[in-house]
From TrEMBL:
Fatty acid desaturase domain segment(s): 42-246
Parts of the chain that traverse the membrane: 12-35, 41-60, 158-179
Protein source organism: Ciona intestinalis
Protein name as catalogued: Acyl-CoA desaturase-like
GO BP terms: unsaturated fatty acid biosynthetic process
Gene, per the UniProt record: LOC100185641
PANTHER family, sorted: ACYL-COA DESATURASE, DESATURASE 1, ISOFORM A-RELATED
Length: 297
């Protein structure tokens, strides 16, 4: 038993653990301040959580990871700003990891392999040493399209200073400068915002890979999970997404609990997004039919 504990402790990246632990403590303290801060600060915190979520879902995920639509420079710059606000690593690193996750889902090469349990896939993978296969597959992953994107290259090069300015100082200083909020209150509430967003996105790696139904392919872990779809702005239709990863909707359900798809639709109407990729109803129906037949055999 002691040997097992020692082996487990050896797997922890203690610097990452210390940072995450500190941030979570700050975030938890921030929740105790919700009745002390000004109403505008609460509204601002919600707005930052919402728009930074779009930076992850519509930006680094549906656009940069899967190229499910095309975006003008203006939209790419906006999505880059919002993704930086989310404080979830650079676009290049996030997208590279996610492409590895899709290609090697639920194997040792999956960065947040759900087969290692809920805790690992939800948050443990951030603080534990990677399986050697993850880095091996990451190094052979084609990310040439990301490297050629000047927005991605700029953000990755200056990510340290950008995330400090955009992810930490910007959402903290706006309440302080514009309506006289306490700097301390604004800072800790921003940490609460970050913790909520981190957990919402992490639910897709954990909950949506363990619980739910699988109408498109019941041989894989990713599942349709309405709770995740609501919490992560439309990202919870995960069985569909892993079967049809290039569909910008990540589901066949239209606007139902799919805020991100609605945002992309709005960007298309504004002329900022175009060539939105979808799967035909015939292909979707046939895939469900074949999956049902396989289950009945």
């Amino acid at each position: 038993t002691m040997r097992a504990v020692s082996s487990f402790l050896h797997q922890i990246q203690w610097f990452n653990f210390a940072i995450l632990f500190s941030v979570v403590c700050c975030g938890l303290y921030g929740f105790t301040l919700v009745f002390q801060v000004k109403l505008l600060t609460l509204i601002w915190t919600f707005v930052c959580a919402f728009i930074s979520g779009l930076g992850v879902t519509a930006g680094v995920h549906r656009y940069w990871c899967h190229r499910s639509y095309k975006a003008t420079f203006s939209l790419r710059a906006l999505l880059c700003f919002l993704q930086t606000l989310a404080i979830q690593n650079s676009i290049l690193n996030w997208a590279t990891n996610h492409r590895v996750h899709h290609k090697f889902s639920e194997t040792d090469a999956d960065p947040h392999n759900a087969n290692r349990g809920f805790v690992f896939s939800h948050i443990g993978w951030i603080v534990m040493k990677e399986h050697p296969s993850v880095d091996e597959k990451r190094n052979i992953m084609d990310v040439s399209d990301l490297l050629e994107d000047k927005v991605v290259a700029f953000q990755h090069r200056y990510y340290g200073i950008l995330v400090l300015l955009i992810g930490v100082m910007f959402p903290t200083l706006v309440p302080v400068l514009f309506w006289g909020e306490s700097f301390t209150f604004a800072f800790f509430l921003n940490m609460s915002r970050y913790c909520v967003l981190l957990n919402s996105v992490s639910m897709i790696n954990s909950v949506a890979h363990i619980w739910g139904y699988r109408p498109y392919d019941d041989t894989i872990g990713p599942a349709e999970n309405s709770i995740c779809a609501f919490a992560a702005m439309g990202e919870g239709y995960h069985n569909y997404h892993h079967v049809f990863p290039h569909d910008y909707r990540t589901s066949e359900l239209g606007m139902k609990l799919n805020i991100t798809a609605s945002f992309i639709d709005m960007m298309e109407k504004l002329g900022l997004a175009y060539d939105l990729r979808t799967m035909s109803n015939e292909v979707i129906t046939e895939r469900k039919r074949k999956n049902l037949l396989r289950k009945e055999q």
